[in-house]
Amino acid sequence: MCGVCGIVQLSGALNAQEAGQQVERMVALLAHRGPDGSGISTGNDAVLGATRLAIRGLADGDQPFVDGESGVTVACNGEIDNHLEIREWLAKRGRQVEHATDVAVIPQLYLELGDRFPEKLVGAFAIAVWDPRCNTLILARDRAGERPLYYRQQGESIAFASELTALTVSGAVSATPDIDSIAGFLRFGYFPAPTTPLEHIHAVGPAEVICFTVNGTQRRNYWSWPLTATSMSPLAPAARERALSEFDTVFRNAVRQQSEVDVDFGVFLSGGVDSSLVAAVTRNLRPEKRLNAYSLRFSESSYDEGDIAEGVADSLGVEFVPVWVKPEDFPAMLPELMRVTGIPLADPAWIPSTLLAKRAAQDVKVALVGEGADELFGGYPTYFGARFALYYSRLPAALRSLIRVSVDRWPATDKKVTLSFLLKRFIQGDTLSGLERHRLWVSNIAPELLHKLGVQHQFADYPAESDSLLNQVQRFDLENSLAEGLLTKADRSGMTQGLELRAPFLDLAVMEFAGTLPEAERTRGIGTKIFLKSYAMRYLPKEIVYRQKRGLSVPLSSWLRGPLADWASNLLNEPRLEQVGVNRKAARDLFNAHRKRQGDHARALWTLMVLSAWLSTQA
Predict the structure, then answer these.
(1) What's the predicted TM-score (pTM) here?
(2) What residues have CB less than 8 Å from 566, skipping those under 6 apart?
(3) Residue 517: which residues within 8 A CB-CB, separation 6 or more?
(4) Once rounded to an integer, what is the mean pLDDT over residues 587-601?
């Protein structure tokens, strides 16, 4: 893991001195991503930089890598899990890799395959390749979007970096808030690629390769999730046993590869089935390894899963390390995270995740996490809700109206994942298409409420697919809320502390296996992750596997009425909100309604607060 950056000139003369100074500043601003070393490579038309968090090949992994014969220069943020297989494949073609570190295979792989080289890689990565022979810059990102990469093109000059702050604060590019993109952020709480909060700065998308040449820019996706199975029938018993055994091989290999590192590593453990399964398989594969499990704790009982997580850790012979989350952590940490990374993210779990990473970084450099399992294997209640909503929408309009009025009267509660919360989400958008209804359910601020807040942006419908509804909503979540929301949270929370987070569920073979499962092996009735839970029974007790899904969330509803109320009030009264189209009076009215328990508006309020805090860092 590391941070990468650079400035290249496709044609004309590069001011090498100025570019070099800017890249030096960019490298300094990325030091938290790579505290173990840094390097800069300067050529006639390009300056590339990198910082390093040493994970594999500790002695010889400093970047950027420069091929002596061709001059091809590579900077990679991430890990290449199949580097041993690639070395062997390259050797058969007469190409030798000099360095032991995993990312050292990339220059020779590029020389062999050209811009198709990412198709051969398995891992989490964001890569820049500069080819001086044809003045071509290639930017590429891993399939799931685990590692970030941003760029701005100004004429024939391109600047890129792992984080927005490295681009803007270094002076490499100017920064002006993008009001249209910010409207999208207010709706969903993240910025889907290629959008960012700043005009003219773009994000490389998951599984995307962008080639910049003097003749223009070409972009393509080199992979998409091959989700094709639509059968509503479960696997027959014999076929299911074969599939479970096949998946055991696939998943164990993913965990094995991601834990084959030259440094100490641990696991993040919530007590849910996904992180518990990662911990259990890791322990099974590495019985001799001293393993720490880091877990969040909350004083609020309905949010705290620490006792469950500690029980899992004890049963696996893993050292349990609790990290307590308090409301007073939030006011100082939120603006600091955005100052360092440069991007707002409206997931309140960003702060607890950062606290967890901060504690883990005292002991280890890598932690395995459970991200991706819900999106791949059908773990969210919205997935079976999408199917039920098709039947609900066929009820007479008068009956649906009566149901809506009755459910809306249920009082707001501060508890986590209550029936009233789920039902209030379910009845929304009953006249929309299935995918648009799902997008409404997962919105931080629904379009109707955004209009009341003064944001008049017209949101286009997401392109519909000729696919089953379950396939559509899972693909949407994988490519959007996972890639740009949850994985952004994981990357930024870990890398601000110099900790690499790896997700075995996002291994290529695991993702492709999940795409072969019939719908009935993903959701059935009100059951979720049917197949994955059956598999987990091989490693975990039933009471862990079939616990009610809780997820990582924060008791924001009560905190915004109590210990965080004054801080929230100040943020919602920030004048800069008006500059991006938010009516402050409407925001304050929403806050007052929340405090009076006239509704639970915590998600919307938090999104506005995050935006306000980010705007204050742009002054």
Answers:
(1) 0.94
(2) none
(3) 229, 243, 377, 531
(4) 95
